[in-house]
Amino acid sequence: MQHLDDATRTELEAAAFRRLLRHLDEHKEVQNIDLMILADFCRNCLSKWLVAAADERGVDFDYDSAREHVYGMPYPEWKAKYQQEATPEQLAAFEARQAAKKERQDG
């Protein structure tokens, strides 16, 4: 993408991000813990990254608003409708991923 001007690159990246949000919205069955286990990020991470990007640019954009944008609805509503309790297996897999990540960082 080095051959693209900054505006075009930004438009393409923004379009890809919007597509990622649509994809996640179409797959509400994929729980945040599943995303964390597999990819080390989740919908909440995307929300935090949006807030951080806004902060870097001096834009007022709070975490609740960011989560509503990412989830497509207020987070408490999404959580009540779609969030499931993590299973013991999911929690164990998440803890193993975190431990391995810490080993890599410390190693």
TrEMBL record:
<feature type="domain" description="SMc04008-like">
    <location>
        <begin position="30"/>
        <end position="95"/>
    </location>
</feature>
<protein>
    <submittedName>
        <fullName>Deoxycytidine triphosphate deaminase</fullName>
    </submittedName>
</protein>
<dbReference type="InterPro" id="IPR023163">
    <property type="entry name" value="SMc04008-like_domain"/>
</dbReference>
<dbReference type="Pfam" id="PF06844">
    <property type="entry name" value="DUF1244"/>
</dbReference>
<dbReference type="InterPro" id="IPR036810">
    <property type="entry name" value="SMc04008-like_sf"/>
</dbReference>
